[in-house]
Design a protein that fits this description.
The complex is a heterodimer of chains A (330) and B (325).
Chain A: E1 2-6, H1 12-21, E2 27-32, H2 36-46, E3 50-51, H3 54-58, E4 64-67, H4 74-83, E5 87-90, H5 98-111, E6 115-117, H6 125-135, E7 142-148, H7 164-167, H8 171-187, E8 191-199, E9 212-219, E10 224-228, E11 244-249, E12 252-257, E13 262-265, E14 275-278, H9 283-296, H10 305-324
Parallel strand pairs in A: 1-2, 1-4, 2-3, 4-5, 5-6, 7-10
Antiparallel strand pairs in A: 7-11, 8-9, 9-10, 11-12, 13-14
Chain B: E1 2-6, H1 10-19, E2 25-30, H2 34-44, E3 47-48, H3 52-58, E4 61-64, H4 71-80, E5 84-88, H5 95-108, E6 112-115, H6 122-132, E7 139-148, H7 162-165, H8 167-171, H9 174-184, E8 187-196, E9 203-211, E10 216-223, E11 231-238, E12 241-246, H10 278-292, H11 300-319, E13 323-324
Parallel strand pairs in B: 1-2, 1-4, 2-3, 4-5, 5-6, 7-10
Antiparallel strand pairs in B: 7-11, 8-9, 8-13, 9-10, 11-12
Helix pairs in contact in B: 1-10, 4-5, 5-11, 9-11
Classes of the chains: A alpha/beta (330), B alpha/beta (325).
C-alpha cells in the first residue's frame, strides 16, 4: 500500500514516518513540504523522498495520506488529497473552524474517500484498560473525571503552535481535543456545556495566544469533567508533559497516567536533567495500523471525521466561554 | 493561660493533643455526649464540665470543636464572657454569621482564631513560601486536590447534613479555597460542578477559580473514595517554574499492614508526614499570638473569605452558572 505524508509541519510526522517505514505491506513513498530548506533537512534526516509540491506527491498514485500540516492548512490539503482519491488520516485538531471542517467532510464524501482523525490516545493501552473498567461497571456510576493534558510550550519544536493564524489558537487548540474525544468515546456521550478560563498567563511577552486553560465540561450523561490544557510545564521539565485522567465513580476510582512507564535518567550535559525516558508502547503505532487496515479492508476507520469535528467544537466553545465568561454550548 | 475544649469528637481529641504541646493549661471539656466527653477527659486527664457556661467561667481561651451550625452562638457567648476563642473551620455556614462573630469578638476585645489547618501543613506552607519568594515567577495555574471518603461516624453523622456542616463543598473544599486565595489573592469568579451518589452521601466536585490578579485554579474535592483513602495534591505553575507534591508519592515511612479485626476508619485526616503535627502547630501559633497580642497569620477575615468562595461554588453548582464575587 502506497502512503504519503502531506507536510512535515506537525511534529508527529517524524513519529509517523518511523512507524510506516517498518510496517509490513506499507510503502512510504515520501513526503511533501513547501519550505525548501526544511524539506531538504527532513529528507536527509529521515532518508525520505521529498516533494516540494503537494500535487507531485499526490500524483504518485497513493492510497492513503497523512495530513500533518499546520491546523489552518488542513482544509487545503484534505481537499487536494480527496480529489486525488486518497484516504486521509488528518492531524488534530482537524480544523480551526466549523466551515473548514465541514468543507473537508464534503470533499471526502464527494470523492468517496474515508477521513480518519488522528486521536492516538484512543489506541493507548492505559486508555483501553480504563475503557474496559468503565464498560464492565467496575467503577459504578461515574461522578466525574479529572483530566490533565498539560505540557511545555511546544514552540521549541515547531514555532507555528503559538501562531494564531496557523494554529487557530494556543494551548486550548493544541490539547483539549484529546481528552474531549476520550470523554465522548469512553462514555458514549456528547459534551453539552463548556465552561473555560483561557488566558496567556505563562508567556505574556513572547506569544500572543492562550497558554493557560482550565475547562469544566458537562456531558450528556450528567458527568462532569475537567480538562487542564495549559502549557504550564517548564521547558526544563523532565519530559514534554502529561496525559492523565482520574475517573471517580461510586464504586471506585481509577487513576490513569498514560506515560507513567518511564525511567529517570541523569545524564551529564543532557538538555533535560533529569529526563524521563519512556518504555511504554507508542499508541501512534496502533492508530496507524488501524488507518492502514481500514484502507485494506475498504471500510470506514474507527475514528471518524465526526469525532474530530465534535472535539473541535468543544475547543471552539471553550474559546467562546472564556470570552463571554459564561457557559457555552458546543 | 487556661483552655477549655467544647466538643468531644475527632477534632476535640486532635486539638487536645495539640494543646498538650503548648504551655497552655488544658483544664477540661464539655460536650452533649457525656460518654464521649468522659473518655476524652480520662485520656487527657482533664475535667468534664456540665455546661458550656460553667466551662467559660473557668478558662481564658475556649476551643470550639463542635458542628459548624453551633459555632455562631458559642462564639457570641464566649465573646460576651470576654473569653478568647479558637474555632474549628468553617467559621460559620453564612457570611453574615461569620461577620457577626468577628464583630462581637472585636467589640469584646477578645481574639478569634479560626483553625484553617492546611496553612500549617509543611508542604503547603513551604510551597507558599517558595511562591512568595518568586521561585516560580508569576502564578499561572494552581491545581489542588482533596478527595476523601464519606465521613464515618457512629450515631448522629452531622457532616452529612448540609444544614449543619455546609456539605462537602463547605466543610472539605474550604481548605483549598483558602489555600488558593492565600497564593493567588482575591477571587473574581467561581464556576463549579458537583455530582451526587445515586444513594447515600457520596459526592465529587470540581471548581474553577479565577483570581483578580490573573491566575486560575482548579480545586477538586470529594467524599468519593473507598473508606480509608484520602488523597491530596498540589501543583502550582508559574512563568518561571513549577511546584509539584502529591500524597501518592513516597514518604519517609510507608507501612503495609493487615487491618486488625474490628478496626474501623472514621473521619479522614490528611497525612502531614513525619513533620510536626500541623494541628499542634496551628494551636501553638494561636496561643503565642493570643498571649503576645501579635496578629494571626490566618485571620478570621481570611476564614470568612474562604467561606465566601465556598458559598459561591455552591451557588454555581445550584445555578449551573459562574458566580462573580
Amino acid at each position: 500500500m502506497r502512503i504519503g505524508i502531506l507536510s512535515f509541519a506537525h511534529l508527529h510526522a517524524e513519529t509517523y514516518q518511523a512507524h510506516l517505514g517498518d510496517m509490513a505491506g506499507v510503502e512510504l513513498v515520501g513526503f511533501s513540504h513547501e519550505d525548501a530548506s526544511e524539506g531538504r533537512h527532513f529528507a536527509e534526516r529521515f532518508g525520505l523522498r521529498w516533494f516540494p509540491r503537494h500535487q507531485d506527491l499526490l500524483a504518485e498514485g497513493l492510497e492513503g495520506v497523512l495530513v500533518c500540516a499546520e491546523n489552518a492548512r488542513h482544509r487545503e490539503l484534505v481537499e487536494m488529497a480527496a480529489e486525488a482519491k486518497c484516504h486521509i488520516l488528518c492531524e488534530k485538531p482537524i480544523a480551526t473552524n466549523s466551515v473548514d471542517a465541514k468543507a473537508m467532510q464534503a470533499a471526502c464524501e464527494r470523492n468517496g474517500v474515508h477521513f480518519m482523525t488522528a486521536f492516538p490516545m484512543r489506541f493507548d493501552r492505559s486508555v483501553r484498560e480504563v475503557s474496559t473498567a468503565i464498560r464492565e461497571g467496575r467503577l459504578g456510576r461515574i461522578y466525574g473525571v479529572n483530566g490533565i493534558n498539560h505540557s511545555e510550550i511546544p514552540t521549541a519544536h515547531r514555532r507555528w503552535f503559538a501562531d494564531k493564524a496557523l494554529a487557530g489558537g494556543g494551548a486550548a487548540m493544541d490539547h483539549i481535543v484529546h481528552l474531549a474525544d476520550l470523554l465522548r468515546w469512553l462514555f458514549a456521550a456528547e459534551v453539552l456545556e463548556v465552561y473555560a478560563e483561557l488566558d496567556n498567563l505563562f508567556y505574556p511577552h513572547t506569544v500572543e495566544v492562550d497558554t493557560a486553560g482550565l475547562l469544566l465540561l458537562s456531558l450528556s450523561n450528567g458527568i462532569q469533567a475537567s480538562i487542564d490544557c495549559s502549557w504550564s510545564r517548564p521547558t526544563w521539565y523532565p519530559r514534554w508533559g502529561h496525559f492523565k485522567m482520574e475517573i471517580v465513580g461510586e464504586a471506585g476510582t481509577v487513576v490513569m497516567d498514560s506515560f507513567a512507564h518511564y525511567l529517570t535518567l541523569y545524564s551529564r550535559g543532557a538538555p533535560r536533567n533529569p529526563s524521563w525516558v519512556g518504555f511504554g508502547s507508542d499508541p501512534n503505532r496502533a492508530m496507524l495500523e488501524e488507518f492502514v487496515a481500514s484502507i485494506r479492508e475498504r471500510r470506514p476507520p474507527s475514528v471518524t471525521w465526526n469525532d474530530g469535528f465534535q472535539a473541535m467544537r468543544v475547543v471552539l466553545a471553550a474559546y467562546e466561554s472564556s470570552l463571554t465568561k459564561s457557559v457555552a454550548i458546543p | 493561660m487556661r483552655v477549655g475544649i467544647v466538643g468531644s469528637g475527632v477534632m476535640a481529641e486532635v486539638h487536645a493533643r495539640g494543646w498538650r504541646t503548648t504551655e497552655a493549661e488544658l483544664l477540661g471539656c464539655t460536650s452533649t455526649n457525656l460518654e464521649q466527653a468522659t473518655r476524652l477527659a480520662r485520656q487527657f486527664e482533664i475535667g468534664v464540665y456540665k455546661t458550656y457556661s460553667d466551662l467559660l467561667q473557668d478558662v481564658d481561651i475556649v476551643d470550639i470543636c463542635v458542628p459548624t451550625h453551633l459555632h455562631k452562638d458559642m462564639v457570641l457567648q464566649a465573646a460576651s464572657a470576654k473569653r478568647h476563642v479558637v474555632c474549628e473551620k468553617p467559621i460559620a455556614l453564612r457570611l453574615l454569621d461569620g461577620l457577626e462573630m468577628i464583630e462581637a469578638c472585636d467589640k469584646a476585645g477578645v481574639r478569634l482564631f479560626v483553625a484553617m489547618v492546611v496553612r500549617f501543613f509543611p508542604q503547603y506552607r513551604l510551597s507558599r513560601e517558595l511562591v512568595a519568594k518568586g521561585q516560580i515567577g508569576q502564578l499561572g495555574v494552581i491545581r489542588l486536590k482533596r478527595v476523601s471518603f464519606v465521613p464515618q461516624k457512629q450515631g448522629d453523622n452531622w457532616y452529612l447534613d448540609e444544614t449543619r456542616s455546609g456539605g462537602m463543598v463547605v466543610d472539605l473544599m474550604i481548605h483549598d479555597f483558602d489555600y488558593a486565595r492565600w497564593l493567588g489573592g482575591d477571587v473574581e469568579r467561581v464556576y463549579a460542578r458537583l455530582n451526587q451518589a445515586t444513594e447515600g452521601p457520596g459526592q465529587y466536585a470540581q471548581a474553577i477559580l479565577r483570581f483578580k490578579g490573573g491566575p486560575m485554579a482548579l480545586i477538586e474535592g470529594g467524599w468519593a473514595y473507598p473508606p480509608g483513602v484520602f488523597r491530596t495534591a498540589i501543583d502550582i505553575s508559574g512563568t518561571e517554574g513549577l511546584i509539584e507534591w502529591s500524597s501518592d508519592e513516597h514518604a519517609p515511612v510507608r507501612s503495609f499492614l493487615l487491618r486488625r479485626p474490628g478496626e474501623a476508619v472514621s473521619v479522614g485526616l490528611p497525612v502531614a508526614g513525619l513533620s510536626d503535627d500541623p494541628y499542634a502547630l496551628e494551636l501553638q501559633h494561636a496561643y503565642r499570638c493570643i498571649r503576645s497580642g501579635e496578629p494571626f497569620e490566618v485571620t478570621a477575615h481570611d476564614a470568612l473569605e474562604a467561606l465566601r468562595i465556598a458559598l459561591a461554588a455552591r451557588e454555581s453548582i445550584a445555578t449551573g452558572k459562574p458566580v462573580s464575587l
